[in-house]
Amino acid sequence: xxxRKLVPRERTEIINLEEFVPQDHLLRAIDRYLDLAEFRxxxxxFYSHTGRPSVDPELIxxxxxxxxxxxxRSERRLCEEVHLNLAYRWxxxxxxxxxxxxxxxxxxxxxxxxxxSDAFRELxxxxxxxxxxxxxxxxxxxxxxxxxVRADAQRQRAVPGTQHIAWxxxxxxTRPVREYLAALDAANPADPPKYVSLTDPAxxxxxxxxxxxxxxxxxxxxxxxxGIIVDVEPSPSNHxxxxxxxRTMIDRVEQRQHLKxxxxxxxxxxxxxxxxxxxxxxxxxxxxxxxxxxxxRTDGTFAISAFIWDEQANEYRCPAGHALRxxxxxxxxxxxxxxKAGTINYHASQWDCQQCSLKAQCCxxxxxxxxxxxxxxxxxDVARQIMDTPEYWQSRRQRKKVEVLFAHLKRILKLxxxxxxxxxxxxxxxxxxxxxxxxxxxxxxxxxxxxxxAESAT
Length: 458
Fold this sequence. Notes:
Blueprint: H1 26-33, H2 37-43, H3 57-69, H4 75-84, H5 86-91, H6 103-111, H7 113-117, H8 119-133, E1 141-150, E2 158-160, H9 175-187, E3 195-197, E4 204-206, E5 213-223, E6 228-235, H10 239-256, E7 263-265, H11 273-283, E8 286-288, E9 308-310, E10 315-317, E11 323-325, E12 343-348, H12 350-355, H13 359-362, E13 370-374, H14 377-386, H15 390-398, H16 400-411, H17 422-457
Parallel strand pairs: 1-7, 7-8
Antiparallel strand pairs: 1-5, 2-3, 4-5, 5-6, 9-10, 10-11, 11-12, 12-13
């Protein structure tokens, strides 16, 4: 007996994805605080009004936010996840039958129009402004730190920095090489790096932990009230570049967000004389930072702290009462005596040192005692005074909020290695990751926290 042929019914019901997304879902909370109106306006000039319609930029941004919030690093896998996951479709404003962009189209738009328009910076700052409106940014205290992230460059593709590299025609090279050559022409550095990657030449050769590798540093400037990231900046992996990145971030936040902290919290890497001088003299910010000081001696001789500074006389007094001066005679043409290291050398009279009974405890191996005083020593003294206050130890505890964000960045968001190359690639990845972290924190503190309280009360 033959069965009756089944004819499929036409699908007339409309599937409402709203029913499938729980009220306490993270993306629902993020969607409540994500406003892309300014982003659309900013990106509008970069899309053509003729020809085939382009992929909606808001769709690409929402997909990227999903990828960075949930640690989906592959663009191909991200497109597959958005295709399959109903919550992801709901967040991207896609219906059940709407088509997800192909991964190649997605990548082309992300690396083309978005990079030309600096759209990720605009996205980050729009989320930051929402955090400020919601009261999550106090503006009283900022903390800064840097973390090393591996670059997408292999050790096998490295050559010594002193070796001449024939790059050829820059217009025919890859984007990371073009960016490196442009920065090289602008900076003209005197000291070559130890190794240069032929794949990503701007990446730094770092041996911070274990075997050396190529890397970039992501620099965070956070507000200590709720741990919101107020700015992020990529840099080479060295202390000088990281300190310069912090200066850039402080200036940019003051200019764009009109936020200037009363105190800056950092570790010893930010306690150099030039950095402290910039904070105290030029910005009027209290440095809650340990002073980078290598003046203490281990051979049992007198340290600099045993010498008394006389501001009026512009000289030091040794434990025996003798003077240490920057010059012992008058010059026809006045001299500043400032060295390339930003210090002024004060030395004692050779006659005084030869007759002194404390010479064995002061300078047993040199004819006279010499002290190198920084031109920013007054700012270093301000930092030393702050280190003796209870507020300083409170700041030391608050500095851990930056380290927590870095741990979250690498373990939860899976950004322990970059997928994009060159300074612009690091710039895009770090900005998107910081945006995702701010959105997650704002959603959990404002939306999900209220839901938990309501459930507890019920």
